[in-house]
Write a structure and sequence with these properties.
Elements: E1 2-5, H1 11-20, H2 23-30, H3 39-46, E2 53-59, E3 68-75, E4 83-90, H4 99-111, E5 118-124, H5 128-136, E6 140-145, E7 148-154, H6 155-164, H7 171-183
Parallel strand pairs: 4-5
Antiparallel strand pairs: 1-2, 2-3, 3-4, 5-7, 6-7
Helix pairs in contact: 4-6, 4-7
InterPro entries: Acyl_CoA_acyltransferase, GNAT_dom
GO molecular function, one term: acyltransferase activity, transferring groups other than amino-acyl groups
Protein name: GNAT family N-acetyltransferase
Amino acid sequence: MCIRTVSPQDEGRLREGIARMSPRSRYLRFFSGATTPPDWVIERLLDVDGVLHLAWGAIDLSDPAQPAMGVVHAMRPDAGDRVAEFSVGVVDDYHGLGLGRLLAATLLLDTRDDALEALTAHVLYENTAAMRFIRRLGGQRVAQDGPTLEYRLDIAEALARLRQEQDPPGLADIFAHFDASDAA
């Protein structure tokens, strides 16, 4: 597996990964079961600038096509904002392997240089797996709008919680990589 920043050249991987998600997973992630989100959503997901929009993706290197395994985003409307919107999407074939934790750790570590303090996540009330994941990172439910729940996640707390975890393999390597980068 390779975890790297997302770029516009990943459009094909992104579209293919979304199409490989089950209708249920697409509904829970995009609040729609459409095979692919509208073009404007794809464009927004690929419009990564490293300031207003941070995004990291995982690619399966064991497959010659190197398909997308999952992606994580933090988006904020203004560079001065200290809170960004957080989202994670993992292709069904890779559910339950800890990929969401690996991607979240990577993104959270990346946010340290951007003066972000917290992330918000909007989750459908029926997406119990996402709610468990966010609460595992210390997220607190702060609002509800119909079937959508809003959680707030303190970045420092989430990083402290992830740093304590031993699973999945590779999590400690992500922390070591960013810690070494910070020391350099």
